[in-house]
Backbone:
């Protein structure tokens, strides 16, 4: 069984998806972490993050393991380095390329076929698992999303907002798998709600789909 949670950066997807997975006893899948791994590997290998033809084979060859807590790239724990600002910006570039998306989507489908998952990202309900039993589109006002991210990172909210706006535009305007609510998705605006309140609402919706 799959529950899909999609939405823009800072909508609270990670904390919410993690908590919903824990509550249901499902496995949490952070698909963004996989695109972040491609970005980190590209930066380290000196591969241009806008060169889809070069990124495709690089992405397909990566050994990415996620257990819901740690992100492993080969034998290396990259949970922290993939959250850096440079990798965050690069992830939004590498994820534009269909060659990269194909490799990641294939992995994600393999994973979710093998168990019960709460999968979180941008295209879970639209592309990775359109058959998902429950699809949620999580969103929040841009300024609030930036405030949350800034607090998490200990960064300046205005800078985070500017970077977030560029990422939102790239994620939504890209040709392949742009960010948008899947048909049948329930849209939840988390502005003014805390994680517990959002989890409660999703758990109620999930309960109805179990
Ligand atoms: O959710 P996140 O911030 O960790 O995602 C990092 C980048 O990866 C972001 O720019 C959007 C992209 N992404 C994507 O294109 N498709 C997904 N399913 C998940 C993330």
Residues:
């Amino acid at each position: 069984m799959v529950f899909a949670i999609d939405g823009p950066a800072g909508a609270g997807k990670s904390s919410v998806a993690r908590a919903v997975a824990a509550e249901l006893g499902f496995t949490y899948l952070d698909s963004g972490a996989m695109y972040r791994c491609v970005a980190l590997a590209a930066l380290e290998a000196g591969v241009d993050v806008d060169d889809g033809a070069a990124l495709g084979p690089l992405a397909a060859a990566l050994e990415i393991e996620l257990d819901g807590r740690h992100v492993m790239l080969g034998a290396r724990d990259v949970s922290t380095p993939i959250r850096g600002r440079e990798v965050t910006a690069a992830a939004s570039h590498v994820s534009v390329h269909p060659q990269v998306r194909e490799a990641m989507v294939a992995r994600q489908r393999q994973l979710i076929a093998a168990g019960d998952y709460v999968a979180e990202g941008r295209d879970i309900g639209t592309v990775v698992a359109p058959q998902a039993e429950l699809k949620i589109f999580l969103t929040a006002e841009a300024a609030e999303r930036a405030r949350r991210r800034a607090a998490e990172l200990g960064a300046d909210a205005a800078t985070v907002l500017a970077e977030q706006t560029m990422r939102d535009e790239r994620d939504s305007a890209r040709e392949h798998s742009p960010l948008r609510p899947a048909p049948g998705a329930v849209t939840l605006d988390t502005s003014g709600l805390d994680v517990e309140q959002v989890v409660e609402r999703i758990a109620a919706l999930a309960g109805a789909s179990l």
